[in-house]
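re: the backbone from monday

yeah here it is again, tokenized this time
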């Protein structure tokens, strides 16, 4: 068996892994990254005719964003959960609207992608390709996300996609109990291999307390959030702790995602809390309501999470220079983004204007990824004979993680560092 890293090797983003055996070509994710000019960067090319099956772990574009480019002339079966496919359809449509000029696909290819989907249910094995079976389990990352166990021609492969083993208000942690302890290989994300996330209950209390202080002081709170996953988690946290005495507005793509996720209550940790949150929150359908949202003490949840665009920029320009207000960032802030700039320098340069932040500014680590502690525990679940490949991480982050585990006797971890790298696996040789 050959494993080829098409993307996500030595980098966070554009994850794509090809498993090649005598009779099968199985593609695991096919995502995109975005460069400094917001142009999409794709994984290495794979010929669709060489694929017998494709698996999509979840709907975030860094895992899913390149897939429609493979559905121009072929219809390889695409295995994923129904929620992931419904969310991906929305994400693709939005990506075309924002970056269509730079994308090698149109809505026609998106339709072909959707029509190629084969639904997966957690815990139910499904035959894929030739002499191959896939079983998926809740990954705990975003709604619909899945860890896959692939049995192919005598090998067992575990592919995590992105995963989180800690319960959140939105989802239960990843279902690890059914993951085999002795697969041949585990391909796992290690985004936060050098970072422990704070205890979730403490984080929630600190976040809610900060929100309350701004509201009780007569200000409003802007919470720029990733539309998929983070916006829903923040909304549930606010409602859980009784912040609904004040208006909670939801803007941008998060509105549609809220409604889609609400149609899958069986996948949520607390369906009743989610239903209550949707009933309490106020959707922002137009500029008139958007303008009104900033004229009273309120909480506003809106993309984009790094303030790179979307409705968040409108609110930021209106709210940033009022000391009564709060701007709370609950999402990762990449370098060279306005969100990173305001955290590090206290101002942002937007549309030719420098905007100094006078509002209360805080960052909260509401990550939906496993942290260092959880990643170490995950590695230690497997037998020493299992080969572990780290993806979706950078070498500076992963190297200390690997060294620390090696000192404890776990010398079965490999870190590929370049796209195109190939790993050969047999029952005798690594």
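seq for it, each position gets an aa:
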């Amino acid at each position: 068996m050959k494993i080829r890293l098409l993307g996500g090797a030595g980098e966070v983003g554009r994850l794509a892994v090809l498993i090649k055996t005598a009779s099968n070509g199985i593609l695991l994710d096919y995502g995109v990254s975005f460069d400094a000019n917001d142009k999409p960067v794709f994984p290495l090319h794979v010929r669709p005719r060489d694929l017998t099956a494709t698996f999509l772990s979840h709907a975030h574009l860094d895992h899913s964003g390149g897939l429609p480019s493979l559905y121009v002339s072929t219809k390889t079966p695409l295995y994923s959960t129904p929620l992931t496919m419904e969310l991906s359809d929305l994400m693709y449509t939005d990506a075309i609207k924002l970056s269509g000029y730079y994308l090698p696909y149109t809505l026609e290819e998106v339709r072909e992608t959707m029509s190629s989907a084969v639904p997966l249910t957690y815990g139910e094995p499904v035959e894929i390709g030739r002499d191959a079976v896939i079983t998926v389990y809740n990954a705990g990352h975003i709604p619909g996300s899945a860890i896959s166990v692939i049995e192919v021609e005598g090998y067992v492969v575990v592919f995590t996609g992105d995963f989180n083993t800690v319960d959140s208000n939105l989802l239960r942690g990843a279902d690890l109990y059914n993951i085999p302890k002795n697969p041949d290989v585990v391909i796992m994300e290690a985004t936060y291999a050098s970072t422990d996330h704070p205890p979730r209950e403490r984080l929630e209390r600190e976040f809610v307390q900060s929100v309350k202080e701004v509201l009780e002081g007569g200000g409003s709170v802007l919470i720029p959030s990733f539309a998929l996953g983070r916006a829903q988690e923040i909304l549930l946290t606010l409602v859980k702790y009784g912040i609904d005495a004040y208006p909670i507005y939801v803007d941008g793509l998060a509105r549609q995602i809220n409604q889609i996720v609400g149609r899958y209550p069986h996948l949520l940790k607390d369906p009743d809390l989610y239903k209550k949150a949707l009933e309490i929150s106020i959707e922002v359908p137009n500029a008139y309501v958007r303008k009104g949202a900033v004229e009273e003490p309120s909480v506003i949840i809106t993309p984009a999470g790094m303030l790179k665009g979307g409705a968040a920029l409108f609110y930021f320009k209106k709210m940033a220079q009022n000391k009564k207000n709060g701007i709370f960032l609950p999402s990762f802030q990449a370098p060279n983004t306005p969100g990173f700039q305001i955290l590090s320098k206290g101002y942002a340069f937007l549309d030719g204007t420098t905007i100094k932040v006078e509002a209360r500014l805080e960052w909260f680590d509401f990550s939906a990824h496993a942290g260092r502690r959880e990643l170490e525990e995950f590695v230690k679940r497997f037998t020493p004979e299992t080969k572990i490949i780290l993806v979706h991480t950078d070498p500076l982050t992963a190297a200390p993680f690997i060294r620390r585990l090696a000192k404890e006797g776990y010398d079965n971890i490999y870190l590929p560092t370049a796209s195109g790298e190939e790993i050969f696996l047999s029952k005798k040789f690594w």
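Residues 82-99 form the longest helix (18 residues). Residues 59 and 88 are 5 Å apart (CA to CA).
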